[in-house]
Amino acid sequence: MTKLNWGMIGGGEGSQIGPAHRLGAQADGNFVLAAGALDVDAEKGRAYAQSLGVASDRAYANWQEMLAGEKDRTDRVDLVTVATPNSTHFEITKAFLEAGFNVLCEKPMTMTVEEGEEIVRVAEASGKICAVNYCYSAYPMVREMRHMVASGDIGKVRLVVTNFSHGHHGDATDADNPRVRWRYDPAMAGVSGQFADCGIHALHMAGFIAGDEVTSVSADFASTIPTRTLEDDAMVNFRMSGGTVGRLWTSSVAIGRQHGFDIQVFGETGGLRWASEQPNQVFYTPVGGRTQIMEKGEGSLSDEAGRLSRVAIAHPEGFPLAVANIYVDLAAAIRGETRSALPSASDGLRSMAAVYAAVESAGAGGTWVDARPPMFR
Ligand code: NAI
Question: Which of 95, 99, 164, 256 holds its CA 20 to 30 A away from the CA of 129?
Fold first, then answer.
C-alpha cells in the first residue's frame, strides 16, 4: 500500500500533544511526515521539522507558507493535522479544507458555535474529511463498549456517569505560571476553562458509547482559585435525545487524581465501566449477575476492538496508540473506506454548542439550556 503524505501544524518540540500525533500517525506505516509548520517560532519549527526528516523546502515557517507551498504540488500532503493552541484552529482548518485538504483538528475544534457551523459547512462543501481528535474514543475497549451498547448487551441506556478530573492546576502558588494561567483567561481560552479543555472529551465519549446526542445541559461552574476568571471545576448534568440521563464532573484542582477520565454506562440489563488509567479493561455486570472483567486482546471481542489492538493480551498500548487508531481510520477513509466511528466536524460543533450552553446555564443558576447546535435543531 502506498504511504500517504502527512503534514503537521503546531506540535513543535516540547509541545504536549505533538509527540502523540507523530507516534500515532506513523505507528502503522500509513503516513510519512512530509511537511510541517511545527512551531510559532519559524526557525525553531523549520529546524525541528528537518530533524524529523522533512525536506528543507517543505519545512515551512508558518501555516500560510505551508498552504501556499503544498496546494499545487502533485505529491501534496494527503492529511493536515492542526495541533496548535485553540484560538488558531478555526482559521487554519477552514483554509486547508477550502484548499481541498483532509484535516485532523485538535479539540476544541473552534472557539465559537458560529465558527463550528462554518467548519461543518466548509467540510461538507469541500467533500474532504474533517476529523476532530477525540482520541479516547479510539481505545479498543471503548470501541468494545460502543459495540456492546449497539448490540443491546446492556439494554436501553438509562444513565451515563463520567468524570475527567485531575489535580494539576490545584496548586494556588503556581496559578500565575503562564503555562497554567492562560487556560483560565477568557482572552486566551474563550468562554470556558476546564469544561472546554477536558469536559468535552467526556461529553463526546458519553454520546459516542451511548450512540446518542446531548440535547440539554444544566451546569454549575466554580473557580476555586479566586484569581481565575474561568472555571477550574464544573458539574454538568445532561440529557440525551433518547432520554438517557447524564452526569459529568470535570476538575483541574482534584489533587491526587492524575488523569482521572472514567465513564460508566448503566442500561436496563447491565452496566459497563472503563477508565483511562486502566484502559485495557472493561468491567461488565449483567443485571443480577457477577462483574466480569473483559480484557483487550481476548479472542471473543468484537471485530472493531480486535482490529485496533496491535500487541498481545495484557500488554499495554496506551494513549499514543489510541491516537494511532484515529490515524488508522483516517488512512482508511482517505483511501475511500467508510469509517463511521471517526470523530467528525459535527462532533466538534456539538461540543462547542454544549460548552456555550453550559456557560449560559452556569451563569443562570443551573437552568436547563438547549445544547444542540442551531443548525442541527
Ligand atoms: P503546547 O502549548 O504544548 O504546544 C503548542 C505547539 O504549537 C507549540 O509547539 C507551538 O510552538 C506551536 N504553535 C503555536 N502557535 C502556532 C502557529 N500559529 N503555527 C504553528 N505552530 C504553532 O499545546 P498542547 O498542549 O500541545 O495543545 C495543542 C492543542 O492540542 C490544543 O488545542 C489542545 O487543546 C490540544 N490537546 C489535545 C489533547 C487530546 O487529548 N486530544 C491533549 C492535549 C492537548
Answer: 164
Asked if residue 108 has a cis previous peptide bond (ω within 30° of 0), the answer is yes
Does 118 sit in the ligand 1 pocket, CB within 6 Å?
Answer: no
Reported pTM: 0.97
Q: Which residues contact 125 (CB under 8 A, 6 or more apart)?
A: none
Is residue 10 within 6 Å of ligand 1 at its C-beta? Answer: yes
**How many angstroms is it from 364 CA to the middle of ligand 1?**
32
Alpha-carbon span 357 to 364, nearest angstrom:
11
Instruction: Say if residues 189 and 229 touch (Cβ distance below 8 Å).
Output: no
Alpha helices in 107-216 (DSSP H): 113-126, 140-150, 178-181, 186-189, 194, 200-210
367: amino acid identity, one letter: T
pLDDT digits over 167-179, tens only? Answer: 999 999 999 998 8
Contact, 281 vs 305, CB < 8 A?
A: no
